[in-house]
Amino acid sequence: MTDLETADAAPILPVVAVVGRPNVGKSTLVNRIIGRREAVVQDVPGVTRDRVSYDADWNGKQFVLVDTGGWAPDAKGMAAQIAEQAELAIAAADAVLFVVDATVGTQDVDEAVVQILRRSGKPVVLAANKVDDQRSEAEAATMWNLGLGEPFPVSALHGRGSGDLLDAILEAIPEAPREVVQAERGPRRIAIVGKPNVGKSSLLNKVSGQQRVVVDNVAGTTVDPVDELVEVDGTIYNFIDTAGIRRRVKEASGHEFYASLRTHGAIERAEVCVVVIDASEPVTEQDLRILTSVEEAGRGLVIAFNKWDLTDEERRRYLDREIERDLVQFGWASHVNISATTGRHVDRLGPAIQEALAGWETRISTGKLNAFLGRIVAAHPHPVRSGKQPRILFGTQAQAGPPTFVLFTSGQIDPGYVRFVERRLREEFGFVGTPVHVEVRARE
Ligand code: GDP
Ligand code: GDP
After folding, report:
1. How far apart (Å, rounded) are the C-alpha atoms in residues 184 and 47?
2. What string of DSSP letters covers 384-432?
3. Taking the CB of the first residue and of the last residue of the chain, which one, N or C, has fewer CB atoms within 10 A?
4. Quick one: which residues bind GTP 1 (predicted)?
5. pLDDT digits over 412-423, tens only?
């Protein structure tokens, strides 16, 4: 895997998301803070702006401001859309500048955003904007009722109060870059799946061997009766639905249907799936269907080509061709060539599972992601469409497990360009053994 720490040398600046209803003055405030007339402000609510993130500094400290305004929400469902935008921006940010309009007081939408802010646990600075003179300061004080602490009265238009606000922003930015806190949880959930007779039960027997783990000994674990804790290379995994694997299903009509239901259930419950394929036989439709289910469910994927002892050189050459022809879309998967019978390379299964789990859980910081996107956009701009140049403005990783990215764009991005970005993401950051999802939020 690519070493994430050295993948790019750009400094990682803290990100401050500017959040609030349309027309409260976010864009004006951003202009005030960056001290430039860079963001376009017009008296039209939700007017198109051509940038989203700006480098700012105050007292020699640098940070990135992300303006979430500019996405014109429909009249219907406006609150929900603002909340959704805010949620993404907040997830990406190290601190949040929440802007309210002191002259109109708080609204339902503000309350919805406050809920999200509370849940996020991110530091928040509350700006009560449009306090153009001393007289309106009393109005700002009513914003204490949002429960977000002291409201900073400012006039984005005239600059009033902006120094104190900037001091508060710097104070809110965490000193150390934010780290992903791993929640306490039980063993990772792994499913061994594959069509009948490929060697799932033989493989399970081989990896579990003598290492059967007693459930009671693992703290904080709830294990389904059909599951089994198995130790591989000193790590305890929860293998899903091993009862279904151990109980040999007789080949009879109807069983196939139940077997496929179990497979889907196991994939849904797993974090990483080991798809076992019989390497001695041609790859079948059924193998491909199971692989596709894993990808669509967004699970980590290890492909185990089993019965390697039964392959000769000719078969292996043919398998290479099959992989190139039929499995090319799963080129990102971890894979192992094993024999459950002889034990060949079964010891590589543990590292392959670890690799897939690591890829599946990778988080790319907003700073790193946008440095990367900036390079892509500069080197390979989107083709011009009807005289317009669609562009990626800003991106954030909305989720891990599997890595899910949201790109904010101006104009509609071609699906081919999205695939290109996905390929480049993989080249840059690895993501071995995991599907990667890229979503686009376009504004016209
Ligand atoms: P956004 O949609 O939240 O980004 O809001 P804008 O920055 O586009 O501002 C909306 C309107 O409020 C514009 O007409 C601004 O000129 C106006 N405005 C912004 N800040 C202030 C302020 O501090 N005082 C007054 N009086 N008007 C402001
Ligand atoms: P499952 O239906 O996927 O659980 O498959 P099983 O584990 O029951 O294996 C099906 C058959 O293939 C059994 O006869 C196994 O002995 C055989 N088998 C499994 N793995 C291997 C292998 O690596 N090499 C060889 N030669 N036979 C294997």
Report:
1. 44
2. PBTTB--EEEEEEEEETTTTEEEEEEESPPPHHHHHHHHHHHHHHH--T
3. C
4. 20-27, 67-71, 129-132
5. 899 999 999 999
- Closest atom of ligand 1 to 156 CA is 23
The answer to whether the CB of 319 falls within 8 A of the CB of 379 is no
In this structure, how many other beta carbons lie within 10 angstroms of the beta carbon of residue 1?
12
251 or 326, which is more confident? 326
Residues with CB under 6 A from ligand 2: 194, 196-202, 245, 306-307, 309-310, 339-341
The least confident of 154-163, 211-220, 291-300 is 211-220
Segment (H or E) for 238: strand 235-240
Confidence of residue 264 (pLDDT cuts 50, 70, 90): confident
Which residue from 163, 158, 83, 98 is spatially nearest to 128, judged by alpha carbons? 98
226-255 per-position pLDDT tens digit: 788 888 988 889 999 887 777 655 544 556
Which ligand 1 atom is nearest residue 24's CA? 3
- Is the pTM value of this prediction over 0.80? no
Closest approach atom of ligand 2 to CA 306: 23
- C-alpha of residue 172 to centroid of ligand 1, in Å: 24
- CA-to-CA distance for 13 and 370, rounded, in angstroms? 11
Strand-pair category, 228-232 with 235-240: antiparallel
Nearest CA to ligand 2 atom 2: 197
